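Thanks for the sequence, V.! I ran DUF4197 domain-containing protein right away. Repeating your input here for the record:
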Amino acid sequence: MRRLLQPVFVLVLSLATTLVQAGALDAISTGDASAGVKEALNKGADYAVASLGRNGGFLGNDKVKIPLPGYLQKAESALRMFGMGKQADQLVETMNHAAENAVAVAKPVLVESIRKMSVQDAKGILTGGEDSVTQYFKRTSTEQLTAKFMPIVKKETGKLQLAEQYNKFAGKAASAGLIEQKDADIDSYVTQKAMDGLFLMIAEEEKKLRANPVGAGSDLLKKVFGAL
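Predicted structure:
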């Protein structure tokens, strides 16, 4: 009998928790909810840009450090075997520094995304799960970030003649199915990896906020996210 009752008890407890959370959210004004979400978005954007948009932001962080893609990592090993480790290091360093320079100018795009957030967006972010802040930025700023990052990445990779060799070799590797076509151009690859790193760091900050809204350092964030 106890075994039968246990799942029922868990279900009732879950429903009760959901109702309590819904009541807590209903008690928050629309204005406070929107303001709280905007503050959370700004907090995530500030953290990500400050963490990555500096010297060593990508290169010194194993979570986001940009490697040569797929099959080309084997080529990197071959370069080192033939005493060309310096060239391999130059290419990896250039890719990561290009990403750092690109992310450093991401804030205006993210701010514009926050400015355009609707009340419906705010509700979706509050109730959409632990990565809804990150998903909102992906949905509303990826195209603009790509356009802003690409020229900066091109400028950095253009300083290194190895970039042309990379594209030539990578193109052949993509044709042979050894790497994805989108990775066959160094500028597109680095731009995408720069955005991946940016969104990853935003996700980390969002996760911390949701796990500990009391420690967020803002009464508004405590009020809004503490009700979840």
